[in-house]
Amino acid sequence: MEATQKFKLLIESVNRNRILFPLLTLFGLIIVSSLISPYFLTAINIKHLLAQVSIIAVLAAGETYVILTGGIDLAPGSLLALGGAAAAALIKWAGLPTIIGILGGLAIGILAGAVNGLLVARIRIPSFIATLAMLAIGRGATLVITNGRPITGFPHGLSAIASYVGPIPALIIIVLGVYLLSQMLLSYTKLGRYIYAIGGNEQAVRFVGVNVNRVKLFVFIFSGLCAALGGIMMDARLDSATPTAGQGYELDAIAASVLGGVSFTGGVGSLTGTFMGALIMTILGNLLNLLGVAAFYQYIAKGMILAIAAISLSRGVRYAK
Amino acid sequence: MKFKLLISLLLVMGLVISIGAVGLVGAEKPKIALFVSTINNPYFVTMADGAKAAAADFGADITVFDGQNDSAIQTTQVEDAIAKGYSAILLNPTNQDALVPAVKKANAAGIPVFSVDRDVKGGERVAYIGTSNVLAAKEGAIVFLSSLLQAKTTPFKIVILEGIPGASAAVEREEGFKDVLTPFIDAGVIQVIKDLTAQFDRATGLKVMEDILATTKDIDGLIAANDEMALGALQALKAAGVPVGVANNGVIIMGFDAVADAVNAVKAGDFVGTVAQAPFIQGYWGAEASILYVEGKWSVPPGTATYAPTGAKFIPTPVGIVTAANADTITSVTMAKPPLPGT
């Protein structure tokens, strides 16, 4: 009797954070994958999977912050390219030390995120429009910096980011660090509670005297920073910065958040869920490639999984808010 | 109010007169309009350079219009050019169907149209000057196959990386590869381990190759529909410690497009080759043919073949394969000005 009581409580706590469905989907997918492909649970595949999930996961962390406040950020894909290109140009063309190049790339991400934040918070442009503009500007700026051509071949310091610590990719260690810090910020600080609260009821939060604009500015800066970090990770992984990098990644980041149980209307969700969402997306693509499924059917399979997951998540949303 | 009206009338009249004057003065030199699908891709920048070089060599004026990969924009540009009375139109269409009405309008105005690099599916074109992706892919596949024959033992285990599903370049290049490789696949000489898309993208090429490497590291060759995917795959192979290149008895990699990074990979011995189409020659021949045609000094040579997919008279530009033997001198081939057929 007591055991079932405890189990019920556990399920309830998991459910309250909306990570029950992502968790079930993730485990279901892992079980199915290991059953239908003998290559899925091999050391090399897991190693590759962890490296692959890193970049999308780091973008999704920023995206989750924005969605939690009830906004949306369409710029991460472009800002990934911009941050990556800026860092690459500083290192390769300006001949600056690797660390300065990385900081420069991150600074560009913060700057672009701040512009997004100001447009949304101060000038009150809907985030969909403001970040759509930044999507175009970021891509254009990347083309200007790179002159439309890839920047290739970096010193060892940068490519070390994509190396392996024993069997574990350094990339995933960075990402787990980002998730740990940002989940702690969400869970244990005032700022974190404001982020949830704004997504729940912005007007009420304003009335209490919280500086909502500053919180919104913060989430967009954080998203820009995450995107630029993703760009630098991409530079390291490819040993080059390509002007077309990250095209469409903002949609993957949004999908990862939604699959992870983050409510599109804001206020509900967690980074733990988002990380699972990113894993679900990556594993699905990996499995389809392991099986050698032709491209045409891959699109359909991915869309169907996303739709099914969204349907299961949408149940109960009415009561969540 | 009346004063303002007078001023604007005067301005409009001045404009009309000056346009007329420019038209009269310009009647001496042929005026050629080149419409490129986008200037955002180095390939078309080089094409425009070729056309400008020909205009300088043959004494014509050339204007380059950037269609921004948007058929509506390009159609408007062509319509404007018809109104301005250009002597000939060089069209690198954004889309083979959507630009047909624009070509028909030029036909109605009596302006000759030449298509460059890509053709349109209707309207009258004097000639289509370009490279068939199918033929270029065939040449690449042949070099790939002969490299395998020299360096590896049968059956050859290969990976094919395809472009964006449904994109015309991807479809045509796949067709060219398959034309050459299918008989060998059927005979069991070639074993295709995986045939997947990597979206013409470097990061996707890396990811797809990582996924493939989880299933096997026993790979003899990799042929990709563009260099970006092959470069991403190269990164994955290197990270997994799989040897590449003939010298290391590693994976034989064949790219497509001869972008700078790929030519460097050929020089380093990582790629066995990459297919080089010749945008400079396409631009040069396109401009040369249209200028000489307008002056009555050139016409499509008799016996010129028809390009089957669209039905235009087809003047193929040379295709080069960049290999270790010519990687240092390839620009002397791709940036050359070989004689235009029929001159």
Structural overview:
- The complex is a heterodimer of chains A (321) and B (343).
- Chain A has 14 helices and 4 strands.
- Chain A has helices at 2-16, 20-36, 43-68, 76-93, 98-121, 127-146, 156-159, 170-188, 190-207, 212-238, 249-259, 271-291, 295-314, 317-320; strands at 151-152, 164-165, 168-169, 240-241.
- In chain A, strands 1-4 form a two-stranded antiparallel ribbon. A two-stranded antiparallel ribbon of chain A has the order 2-3.
- In chain A, helix 2 packs parallel to helix 12 and helix 5 runs antiparallel to helix 6.
- Chain B is α/β, with parallel strands linked by helices and 343 residues long.
- Chain B folds into 2 domains: 21-131 and 278-318, Rossmann fold (3-Layer(aba) Sandwich); 133-276, Rossmann fold (3-Layer(aba) Sandwich), CATH 3.40.50.
- In chain B, 47% of the residues lie in helices and 18% in strands.
- Chain B has 11 helices and 13 strands.
- Chain B has helices at residues 2-26, 42-58, 71-84, 100-108, 133-151, 168-186, 202-215, 227-239, 260-268, 279-294, 330-334, and strands at 31-36, 61-66, 88-91, 113-116, 127-130, 156-162, 190-197, 221-224, 252-256, 273-276, 306-307, 312-316, 320-322.
- In chain B, the strands form 2 sheets. A 7-stranded mixed sheet of chain B has the order 2-1-3-4-5-12-11, with helices on both faces. In chain B, strands 7-6-8-9-10-13 form a 6-stranded mixed sheet, sandwiched between helices.
- The radius of gyration of chain B is 24 Å and the shape is elongated.
- The N and C termini of chain B lie far apart (61 Å).
- At the A-B interface, helix 3, helix 10, helix 12 and helix 13 of A face strand 7, helix 7, helix 8 and helix 9 of B.
